[in-house]
Amino acid sequence: MNVLMFGWEFPPHISGGLGTACYGLTRALMKTGTGIIFVVPRLFGDEESEQIRLVNASDITVDIRDEVYKSHWDKISYLEIDSTLLPYATDDEYYRIVEQLESGKSLEQLSLHSRKFNFAGGYGKNLMEEVRRYAIVASAIAQQHKFDVIHAHDWLTYLAGIEASKASGKPLVVHMHATEFDRSGENINQDVYQIEKTGMEAADVVIAVSNLTRNVVINRYGIRPEKVITVHNGVEPQKEQSKLMPQKQINDRIVTFLGRITYQKGPEYFIEAAYKVMQKVPDVRFVMAGSGDLLPRMIRRVAALGMATRFHFTGFLKGDDVDRMFGISDVYVMPSVSEPFGISPLEAMRSNVPVIISRQSGVAEVLNHALKVDYWDVNAMADAIYGLLHYPALPSMFRSHGKAEVELIKWDQAGTKVKNIYQQVVHAHTQTTSK
Questions:
Q1: pLDDT tens, 413-423?
Q2: Which end of the chain is more exposed for a tag (fewer CB within 10 A), N or C?
Q3: Topology at the third CATH level for domain 2-60+117-234+413-430
Q4: Which helix (H) or strand (E) holds 39?
Q5: Segment among 46-55, 74-83, 239-248, 252-261 with least mean pLDDT
Q6: Is 97 helix (H, G, I), strand (E, B) or coil?
């Protein structure tokens, strides 16, 4: 079984759970004997690929005059000639192409100096343009490799998966790690929502990371229930403790929030709960590790509450720094407003840190030894933090049972389930095309 997989990021160049999940799943799939061709918009040269075959979309040549490719060019309905979705090397090259198109020349008549798309990668201001360019390149990639099934992760790669499927005739599996409703609440970006809906409608199977996400996919996007399968995420095995765990230099207990500082993650509720705890516990410090659009607002709120001397902002952490942060933490809190799954509580429990999670999270479906509160219930959150700090038996119980529980939630289980999905999809596709 060989898979053409489209992702948007790959360790160590990640901004959150998506890259971590892709890495864990691909490693687990390889243990099952699954061959993987993993495509990203841009490679930096230091990716943790191991035996995974990584493809840099920025290196792919797209020749619109190639008859094999030409038939797929016209199918990309979202391509507009007045945007920077054509192959270009510089701004001057782009404007030269636009001038030729406006003069009446067809795509086939253009004298293109560059036939590669230049991807910046990441999540910059031209993200939507990159998503669409990625889809064009995916069509060419699909014609250059042999594989049995296509797997596209999150909305950023859904269009790429669709075009690759059109070019190759192979079945498509899309993975929903987070919906637009998770990221934006009810104030959704309609363009992103439409890409998500289009991708899931085009797919043979939709993988949801939790039953919570599965219900959103069915009820908010109108996808047929029998087409949506839940596969919970896992967690990587613990690394060598001696190399990663620093000695805490202070006697104060540390309560940690680690995640993007955005609406979805509920950072404001963490701050309000922290303020309540500080009124009763003198030797406690709170850490908010991450970055995001709400960071300035959160800093201002901490200052307004007079907590600045005992509340710390670390910025974005990744890799070993995450393990080091958990190594000095006494409590971990994930107060997400809407969390499709949530890998960070598993990482915390793996490091023997008791966790408090919102009931509005997918990971709550698989964890028994975690304190669960509603994200909006600041009083309950503060009580849970206080209990873990004040009553030694409580964190001791959660540490011992929590670590044992999380050791059973492995990527290997997810890899086996996803491979079974591949086999079913390929079999059904073969049966359909042979008729």
A1: 999 999 999 99
A2: C
A3: Rossmann fold (3.40.50)
A4: strand 35-40
A5: 74-83
A6: helix
Q: Where in the chain is the domain with CATH 3.40.50.2000?
A: 2-60+117-234+413-430, 241-406
Q: Which two tokens stand for residue 169?
A: 């005739």
Cβ-contact 103, 111 below 8 angstroms:
no
Given this model, what pLDDT does residue 278 score?
97
User: How many angstroms separate the CA atoms of 216 and 178, rounded?
Assistant: 10
What is the per-residue pLDDT for 360? 95
Residue 143 tokens, joined: 């014609």
Question: What whole-number distance in Å separates Cα of residue 308 and Cα of residue 312?
Answer: 7
CB-CB neighbours of 209 under 10 Å: 25
pLDDT at 129: 79
Q: Tell me the pLDDT tens digit for each residue of 86-131.
A: 333 344 544 555 565 556 655 455 544 445 666 766 666 678 878 8
Are the CB atoms for 132 and 81 separated by under 8 Å?
no
Average pLDDT, stretch 179-201? 93
- Residue written as tokens 């410090």? 285
pLDDT at 276 exceeding the cut of 90 = yes
Neighbours of 87 (CB within 10 A): 24
Residues present in the chain in total: 435
Tokens 């790669």 map to which residue?
157
Beta bridge partners of 357: 334, 372
Q: Are strands 284-289 and 2-6 parallel, antiparallel or unpaired?
A: unpaired
Alpha carbon of 285 to those of 130, 253, 335, 414: distances in Å?
41, 6, 17, 36
pTM > 0.90 = no
Pick the CATH number of 241-406 from 3.10.170.10, 3.30.450.20, 3.90.1150.10, 3.40.50.2000: 3.40.50.2000
Token reading at 304: 């307004």
376-406: b or e for each residue (b if 16 or more CB lie within 10 Å)? ebbebbbbbbbebbeeeeebeebbeebbebb
Output the six-digit token pair for 338. Answer: 């809407």
Measured CA to CA, the distance from residue 351 to residue 402 in angstroms comes to 10
Contact 256/332 with Cβ under 8 angstroms? yes
In angstroms, the CA 359 to CA 354 distance is: 16
- Each residue's pLDDT tens digit, 292-333: 999 999 999 999 999 999 999 999 988 789 889 999 999 999
Name 434's Cβ contacts closer than 8 Å, sequence gap at least 6: none
